[in-house]
Specification:
- The chain is an alpha+beta fold and about 110 residues long.
- The protein is about 35% helix and about 30% strand.
- The protein is built from 1 helix and 7 strands.
- The strands form 2 sheets. The chain has a 4-stranded antiparallel β-sheet, with helices on one face.
- The chain is elongated.
């Protein structure tokens, strides 16, 4: 019984850094796209989500999630040119192995929390 509890805790401690890495890269990409829209780059900047990846627009650069991670919501983020504003939304990132869901909220100013 003790071994079972130790194994469960060990698996969780291995998955947490992977989840943090996925989260950090996504937040970095959101901020980068917002900055590009504020500096007046060509095109409409945003992010299109799929179940296991997201695509940065207008570059059409796709970022694939590591195995065991998926988005349970697939919204689209489009930043307003010049201001970087966006509609309030929530993106849900799930670790399918542990079942944990991480909620990423984005307010109208593009701030994530």
């Amino acid at each position: 019984i003790l071994f079972a509890f130790a194994s469960i805790n060990l698996i969780g401690s291995i998955r947490r850094p992977a989840e943090a890495g996925v989260y950090d890269i996504l937040i970095s990409d959101i901020r980068s796209q917002q900055l590009k829209s504020m500096t007046g780059g060509a095109g409409t900047f945003g992010i299109n989500f799929a179940a296991n990846s997201y695509t940065l627009t207008p570059d059409n650069f796709t970022v694939n999630l590591p195995d065991g991670f998926t988005f349970t919501t697939t919204p689209q983020i489009v930043f307003e040119k010049g201001t970087g504003k966006v509609a309030d939304m929530t993106v849900l990132l799930q670790d399918t192995q542990s079942g944990e869901i991480r909620e990423i909220k984005i307010n109208k100013y593009g701030a994530t929390y």
